[in-house]
Structures are given as structure tokens and as C-alpha cells.
Amino acid sequence: MTAKHGPSDENLLQFIAQKEKELEAKVAHSREESQRRVEEARRRAEEIRERSRLEAEKLAEEIRDEMEREAASVSKERLAKATTEAARVRARAAERMPKAVELILQRVLAGLEQKSLPS
Length: 119
Prior knowledge:
This protein is mainly α.
């Protein structure tokens, strides 16, 4: 019985060994493919991060520029309003100057008159 099953057992072992080698090759290929895909995914992720970083820097720069323009605009607007208000105040002061001078002269002269009157 042993002699009868000898060659077929050997064929079966060779078949199993062959299948095992095929499976090992498939596993090795799958590992290599997986590693390649992981590396590709990492590379893509790094590219995406770099693009995102550059876009964020560009957006931040655009926002800074817009803020500077807006600040300059607000400053110019406030300066124009302050200049207009100062001109208005100067004009009112100039209008009131003769009356103020007259009032001061009256009070000064009144004080001098009181001092020159005999007590």
C-alpha cells in the first residue's frame, strides 16, 4: 500500500509546495503593491499639504493687503473729517474774534476804571 501511494503522495506534496510558493509570491507582490500605494498616498498628501499651505499664505497676504487698504481709507476719511471740523472751528472762532476782543477790552477797561476811581 505504501508503494502504491508513494508517487501520488509526492505529486501532492509537490503540488502543495508549488501552491505555497505561488501564494508566497502573491503575498510578496501584494505587500509591495500595498507599500507602493502607501508611499503614493503619502506623496499625494504632502503635495496637498504644500498646496494648502501656499494657498493659506496667499489668502493671508490678500487679507493683510485688504486690511491695509481699508485702514488707509479709514485714516484718510478721518483725516478729511478732522480737517473739515478744524476749518469749521477756525471759521467760527474768526467770526467770534471781534466780539471776544470787544468783550475783553470792556472788562479790562472796566477794571482799570474801578482802580482809577477814588475810594
